[in-house]
Amino acid sequence: MIYINQVVKPGQEWSRFGGGALANNGEITRIFKDAKAAYLYALDMLKENKKPGDETRTAACREPKCAYFYAVHVDKTSREDTRTAACLDPKWAFWYALAVDKSPRNDTRTAACRDPKFAYLYARDVDKTARDDTRTAACQNPEFASSYASEVDRKSGCANDTIYFLQDSVFHYLAGSLGVPGKNGYGQ
């Protein structure tokens, strides 16, 4: 648990934040039970024209989704700690690159490439060009391989690259399932 040294105002409702309040030398101190609680608390601090402390960011960074929303709505800029937390999930790494960094980076791309859908979306919306790493990741799923070929490769002027990649992958799959030796040791 992360302790935030903020005094609770009389009559203020803390149940929204998912935690309780503790008596500490006559003051009531806020405890965050989860990342969402820290994010919501930081938003309320901004509404009161107060600057949230680093403790709220640290708590929000325990979950990729909360780290992303913290960067968008509280920090309103990219930071290494929120980016690192967002990169723990391909979905939030993609959204971080698109909405917070507003440019491609190797760490967000690598994280997005752990899921074919977000590899394709990253190439289409963030890189805005075809790359071998995003193509390889997107081609792990036929739906996103097709979308990658039609939307990313075609716009990048390399429309046949994904088709060749898929043909090669199908050959290796079939050769392996038939027990036929293929290149790179497939089928052995």
General description of the model:
With 188 residues, this protein is mostly helical. The chain has a domain at 91-188. 60% of the residues lie in helices and 9% in strands. It contains 10 helices and 3 strands, in the order E-E-E-H-H-H-H-H-H-H-H-H-H. Strands 1-3-2 form a 3-stranded antiparallel sheet.
Q: Which radius of gyration do the C-alpha atoms yield?
A: 23 Å
Instruction: Report the average pLDDT across residues.
Output: 77
Number of helices: 10
Portion in strands? 5-15%
Distance between the termini: 52 Å
State the shape: elongated
Largest sheet: 3 strands, antiparallel
What is the strand arrangement across the widest sheet?
1-3-2
Query: What's the order of the H and E elements?
Result: EEEHHHHHHHHHH
**Low-pLDDT segments:** 1-29, 170-188
**Helicity range of the residues?**
55-70%
Number of strands: 3
Helix/strand/pairing category: mainly alpha
In short:
The chain has 188 residues and is mainly α. It has a domain at 91-188. It contains ten helices and three strands.
Secondary-structure topology with pairs:
Layout (H helix, E strand, L loop, with lengths): L1 E6 L13 E4 L2 E6 L2 H13 L6 H7 L3 H12 L4 H7 L3 H12 L4 H7 L3 H12 L4 H7 L3 H15 L2 H20 L10
Antiparallel strand pairs: 1-3, 2-3
Helix pairs in contact: 1-2, 1-3, 3-4, 3-5, 5-6, 5-7, 7-8, 7-9, 9-10
Keywords:
9% strand, 3-stranded antiparallel β-sheet, disordered N terminus, mainly alpha
